[in-house]
Design a protein that fits this description.
Blueprint: H1 2-19, E1 25-29, H2 30-37, E2 43-47, H3 56-69, E3 75-79, H4 84-98, E4 104-108, H5 116-123, H6 138-153, H7 161-173, H8 177-182, H9 185-190, H10 192-199, E5 206-209
Parallel strand pairs: 1-4, 2-3, 2-4
Antiparallel strand pairs: 3-5
């Protein structure tokens, strides 16, 4: 019996570590990462700085597809380099409404390379059922770090090591963020005008999905 108890404890501990469950502010990549860290979350911040395509219609479909793949329940907001302050304000409001702490899952979209499955689903006007594992995107890492930093400024600083690392990347490179984003792989694909338009996004909070009744 004692051995069984030790094994169960080890499993629970392992799951908590892989899901960052013990932290108030968590960080992961893509929809699969969101599935891991959004357990018990009250707000998911979907960080997507540069669109994968200059086509506006395709951009909207991509955001809709991504939102549909995120775990059901928590409110989902869009994060980028200019609205970290608004996100932090939203979190403090949620905490005031709840009378308790607000768990935040910061999820970087990363680079997505469309495949045959995506093309077929898009042609049918449907979402992609299987979330991909995105490639690293420097612009999303930095914007995620900006969100974590803004949360720390308002006193929400119980962050996972993953979130803390993203924050350190942003604060350490703060002065060169726009240059780094403009010189990134994603920017090279999009072109200067579309990159500048994306970086000109305002500081307003953008809600992608309202909360669906989770306490």
């Amino acid at each position: 019996m004692e051995r069984d108890s030790i094994v169960r404890t080890a499993i629970v501990t392992d799951v908590a570590e892989r899901t960052q469950e013990q932290y108030q502010v968590r960080f992961a990549w893509g929809a699969r990462g969101a599935e891991r860290i959004a357990h018990g979350a009250h707000l998911v911040v979907w960080v997507d700085v540069l669109p994968n395509t200059p086509d506006a219609g395709a951009q909207r479909r991509a955001v809709r597809n991504a939102t549909a793949q995120l775990p059901d329940g928590p409110e989902v907001v869009l994060g980028h380099l200019a609205n970290a302050g608004a996100i932090a304000e939203r979190v403090t409001c949620l905490q005031a409404e709840r009378g308790d702490r607000c768990i935040v899952a910061v999820v970087a979209a990363g680079l997505h390379h469309a495949g045959a499955l995506d093309d077929a689903a898009e042609a049918a006007g449907e979402t992609v059922d299987v979330p991909d594992a995105p490639d690293f995107a420097v612009e999303d890492l930095l914007a995620a770090g900006a969100v974590v930093d803004a949360l720390a400024v308002v006193g929400i600083d119980h962050t996972s090591p993953e979130a803390a690392a993203a924050c350190a990347a942003y604060t350490g490179l703060r002065r060169g963020v726009k240059h780094l984003v403009s010189a990134s792989e994603s920017a090279g694909v999009l072109g200067r005008d579309h990159v500048h338009a994306a970086l000109a996004a305002g500081p307003e909070l953008v809600v992608l999905r309202e909360s669906r009744g989770r306490a």
